[in-house]
Description:
Elements lengths: L2 E8 L2 H16 L3 E5 L10 H32 L18 H6 L14 H39 L25 E9 L3 H7 L13 E5 L3 E9 L3 H10 L3 E3 L5 H56 L5 E8 L5 H11 L5 H8 L19 E6 L5
Antiparallel strand pairs: 1-7, 1-8, 2-7, 3-5, 3-6, 4-5
Helix pairs in contact: 1-8, 2-4, 2-7, 4-7
Amino acid sequence: xxxxxxxxxxxxxxxxxxxxxxxxxxxxxxxxxxxxxxxxxxxxxxxxxxxxxxxxxxxxxxxxxxxxxxxxxxxxxxxxxxxxxxxxxxxxxxxxxxxxxxxxxxxxxxxxxxxxxxxxxxxxxxxxxxxxxxxxxxxxxxxxxxxxxxxxxxxxxxxxxxxxxxxxxxxxxxxxxxxxxxxxxxxxxxxxxxxxxxxxxxxxxxxxxxxxxxxxxxxxxxxxxxxxxxxxxxxxxxxxxxxxxxxxxxxxxxxxxxxxxxxxxxxxxxxxxxxxxxxxxxxxxxxxxxxxxxxxxxxxxxxxxxxxxxxxxxxxxxxxxxxxxxxxxxxxxxxxxxxxxxxxxxxxxxxxxxxxxxxxxxxxxxxxxxxxxxxxxxxxx
Length: 381
């Protein structure tokens, strides 16, 4: 599974024994793989500051998780033709995410623990806010370019009624620079080819005999040229429509066609030039954001453990990786049973469905007598 549970319990003798029991039970039942999660000794500060940090870290945790999910999706979007290689680019410090989490070590250089906790949290927050701003700016530029290119490509793919014709027709298909004559393009259903050939010259006066030519086809019909005098153009369009022949409004303009082709080439070139730098930025900053997120988890465990278990600071954090989704309920039951003594009254209420506490809804799914946080690495689910 790509899910981890990060828990902590007081570090006294009774709870160390409880942790050992938990390890024994989960190991024998093949419920989870457990490893110690090292958290440094921070400057505790005041109780008020910890309460404030608890709320701030909760919001920062959600923001960081949202950010790395958006960055992971951006990697998918950029690597549109190489989706199978996306995971190779979603690394943290050069290793896969699971390895980074299971071998987590606090980065003392980036987040010095000698600083007050408030300063450490502020450093992490500013880093993530800057990455978020850069992500929005860079992806907006790339996506605008991608959208413009897709719009041009889409114009080259639809049916003959909607697609651009500039890459289908050529100069030789038209009578150009004539004061009296004009060449029209007419879409004829495939079932009506024979009817078109028999009737197009008589749909109106002044149609040039034998001037029609099939220049393109799709599943529904064909694109034919026909040359006639300008003065009867409106009458010809009306008669064609009555016979279910559709005149496409198109007039050959060599400059416009050249401009459209140059625009397509420019957009393709710009997209290719931005691809490499953007992907490299995403890889580097995804790693930075993910590392910051796991540091936030460590900070939350520390703050919540001090608030829950009191001073002096003495707790043990453990990282659990459930072996399979079907085992999570049983794993939760084992944890609640082993650590029930941490909060006898509330824990007991979760085990007795008949017990109701006014204004408080508890269940084995949402109450934990121990400190608990979830780390979900299913970034692309």
